[in-house]
Amino acid sequence: MAVPLIIPILTCIGGAVVGALSRQPEINRLKEQVHVLQTQVSRLQTTIQEQQRQIEELKIRVNTLKAWNFVEKRRALGITRGYLIMQYGFKEYVELTILQAKGQGISAEELRFFNAFNLMMTGSEIGEEDKQFVKIFISSRYRYQIENLIAMDDGAQSELVRKVEAA
Fold first, then answer.
1. Which of 32, 33, 94, 159 is the most buried if burial means most Cβ atoms within 10 Å?
2. How far apart are CA 9 and CA 124, in angstroms?
């Protein structure tokens, strides 16, 4: 009785061994594929980390450029406003010169402006208080033009020259 049981058991074991051996190439192929995929995952993670580092660096550069642009815009705006203050200061200076040449009186504030601007025009040393006074004086009279960055047109400047020639 023991012999008939041994044959089916050996047949099952032999079938399992043959089945396992016949599937071994597929198992090896799948193991190799898993190894390749794990290598690719590691490489991609390294690439992602490098790209993340580059993104952070670019963010820093963008923020730096934004700050630099803001500073430059403010500087350019300051230069433009300074130019406009000088332009309208020149206009006011010429008009006050014409009024004085015609013998008309000017206010004490206008006289202070005239004297301070005259020193600036001759290149003489002018105090900080007088510089601020000129800036405030012109800014108060031509606030709209300066705030909206409206320069005098060439016609207005030519008109000033004609007024001087007529005076």
1. 94
2. 118
pLDDT tens digit at each of 167 positions of the chain = 556 667 667 666 766 666 666 678 888 888 899 999 999 999 999 999 999 999 999 998 888 888 888 888 878 888 888 888 988 998 899 889 888 888 888 899 999 999 999 888 888 888 899 999 999 999 999 999 988 888 888 777 777 777 766 66
Q: Residue 145: exposed, middle, or buried by beta-carbon count in 10 A (0-12, 13-18, 19+)?
A: middle
On whether residue 150 sits in a domain, the answer given is yes
Cα–Cα distance, 13 to 63 (Å, whole number): 71
| Residue 131 identity (one-letter amino acid) | K
Instruction: Report the predicted TM-score, pTM, of the whole model to 2 decimal places.
Output: 0.60
